[in-house]
Amino acid sequence: MDFIIQNILNALQWGSFYALIALGYTLVYGVLRLINFAHGDIFMVGAYISFFVAGFLIGPLAGLSPLMAFLITVPLTMFLTSLVGVTLERIAYRPLRRKGAHRLYVVITALMCGLILEYSNLAVLGASRLKFPELIEKQIWNIGGITLTNLKVMVIVAAILVFLFLQWVVTRTRVGMAMRAISYDKFAIPLMGIPVDQIIVVTFVLGSGFAGLAGLLFAMSYPVLEPFMGMLIGWKAFIAAVVGGIGDIKGAFVGGFLLGFIEVGVVSVFPSTYRDLFAFTILLLILWMKPTGLFGMPQSTKI
Amino acid sequence: MKKYSLNILLVVFAIGLLFAAHFRIIDSYIQIVAMTIGINIMMSTSLNLVNGNMGEFTCGHAAFMCIGAYISSVLSVFCFGTKFGDPLLPAASVVIVFPLILLIGGAVAAVSSLLVSIPSFKTRDDYLAIISIAVNYMIISALENMNFVGGSRGFQGMKDTVWAMVDVFDGPWMLFWVINFTIFTVWVIRRFISSTYGKGVNAICQDEVAAEIMSVNTNKIKIINFMVAAGLAGCAGGLYAHIIGYVNPQSFNILKSTEALVMVYLGGMGSLSGAIISAIIFTGLLEVLRSQAIIDGLLSPVTWMFPDWEPSAGVIKWVMIPLLLVIVMQFRPEGIMGNRELGDVFPKLKKFYRFK
Fold first, then answer.
1. Other C-beta atoms lying within 10 Å of the C-beta of residue A141
2. A108 vs B254: CB contact, 8 Å cut-off?
């Protein structure tokens, strides 16, 4: 029993990372119908930004206490990472959108931007792995044989809070209404006086900011940074978003946790090399049964 | 004359290349580059059949290359190698059996494409992209867990087959097969696209529902199209395995699929000549930027400002090529050729050749 509860907790933590990244994918996709393949690398950039910000804040120049540094690092990382996301949108995606390029060419551009981020990081910072400083003192709680760390709880709570916040933004605010409107009909919306480009920028700010938060939390939980850390986790989070039904906030959240549960479940029963095989087979079967994902609506095709 | 001009040109080019390789006029490095270009042409033209002509978005093309590579390597080691015991076939029969082995690898890859094509009945673009990525990961992961083909350590022993061919006649055999299979691929795709099935494929690209109403059997066309593309990619994988002499599941990961995708979209969706041209350009760029001297020259203003920074060509290459592609996309958002063939871009060329 302890074994099961312990693994459920691990799966919740692992799924939280997938959910946080998948939320960014699904936000951008829901508005632009663009798979932002650079999103996994924005997550990586977020982790690096948080490393430098935290290093500066607890270093000799600023000299803050670790807890204070953590409180400042969170908003600063989210802000700087969202700047990276908006820059990508501004210089790479928007000109293509203006020219009316085919949707898939924008996807390829996003893929290329991801490669540029990875390899320029490798070229500038080198291949040596960085160790993230310990900002919050690790506390281990032991409740009836189950070990809990404060970081684990923080990650899970953060994922749930972000989900609730985004759900509130999309369904209850004016910006969210504009986002849903753009995804509904891209051509009629400018006629209604809605500034499409600004709404898209807001979308990128939200998505990239929470990718930065995920990067910070990931770097605190597994404190080793490397340039390719975002690649695999990004692809997997994208798959999670699609299994949940891409374009739907709830779907991305559920899909991320589903992938986390499948992976941790497989590893706790089989050898760990079987993780990808089982995880992807199960996801393929889900997509086979429900081609539009768990919560996705089928797109109506017009003739 | 007009009817045969392209054939004569190709035969002259192929014989010239083979003679140059046989008499050591071009060294083995140039030969390897030429063979890589051939394999990349096979990959990009076959992916173009799915992503360009049919308008789907699959990003797991390397999975089929992987299956072709493994099947043909295992078969060739069984038949001519010594790793699994004595060779099954006499070494003299290698010249006839080797293309059959490659074709069997392609056929198995074609059958495995059902994993992608059957879900594609019900779903399109982004969901299909995921299915193909998932298939790519699944196949790599499955091969990593198969110990009799070496698992994640990789599999080797295919060079025995190549040496058996050299024993029959001392010549550049792999170059010969790559040239033959590249021409075969382009010919098959051209014939397929200009056939009735090809018209069906184009109809699905334009509008799937309308195509079905116009009595196109969309499911059948999709299965056939995926099978042709995957089969040709499987042949390319078999050739790749025999050139390198070593295969590893991770060399067919999502980056390899990305390379194929880039070649298709750089050339222009649905343009066969565009896919060929972009494969040549892309492979050429990869090779040119491999040289440390060129990279150092290009970055000399930066290294002059930051003397401590020592960029390595292998890393900078992967910054420059995507950057170049992003810039190309900004100026030509439809790719180099953009849905047109060479004869449509330069109408005067049509006087000199006919390509069927």
1. 11
2. no
B258 touches chain A (CB under 8 A): yes
Give the start-end residues of each E strand in chain A. 130-131, 140-143, 146-149, 224-225
Q: Which residues of A touch B209 (CB under 8 A)?
A: 301, 303
pTM over 0.90, yes/no: no
Q: What is the pLDDT of residues A105-146, one digit of tens each?
A: 888 888 889 989 988 888 888 777 777 777 777 778 887 777
Is residue B113 within 8 Å of A263, Cβ to Cβ? no
pLDDT at A301: 47
B346 CB-contact burial (10 Å; exposed 0-12 / middle 13-18 / buried 19+): exposed
Whether residue B327 lies inside any domain: the answer is: yes
Q: What is the DSSP string of B276-318?
A: HHHHHHHHHHHHHTT-HHHHHHHTHHHHHH-TT----HHHHHH
Q: Quote the number of domains for chain B.
A: 1
Chain A interface includes B245 (CB < 8 A): no
Q: Does A228 touch chain B (CB under 8 A)?
A: no
CB atoms within 10 A of CB B306: 11
Return d(Cα B172, Cα B26) in angstroms, integer: 11
CB contact A122 to B (< 8 Å): yes
Test mutation, B53, B141, B208, B321, chain A, max A CBs within 10 A? B141
Query: Does B142 reach chain A within 8 Å, measured CB to CB?
Result: yes
User: What is the model's pLDDT at position B356?
Assistant: 61
Beta strands in A163-232 (DSSP E): 224-225
Tell me, what CATH number does B264's domain have?
1.10.3470
Strand partners, A131: A224
CA A175 to CA A181: how far, in whole Å? Answer: 10
Nearest by CB to residue B134, choosing from A105, A115, A280, is: A280
Mean pLDDT, residues B31-37: 91
On chain B, the residues whose CB falls within 8 A of the CB of A113 are 322, 326
Give the minimum alpha-carbon distance from B198 to chain A in angstroms, rounded to a whole number: 21
Q: Return the number of CB contacts < 8 Å for A and B.
A: 128
Q: Is residue B356 part of a domain?
A: no
Beta bridge partners, B247, equal: B155
Running along chain A, 303 residues long, what does each successive block of 10 average in pLDDT?
84 90 88 85 92 84 79 90 92 86 83 89 80 78 79 89 91 88 83 88 92 90 83 87 82 90 87 83 83 70 45
Q: Which domain holds residue B324?
A: 5-351
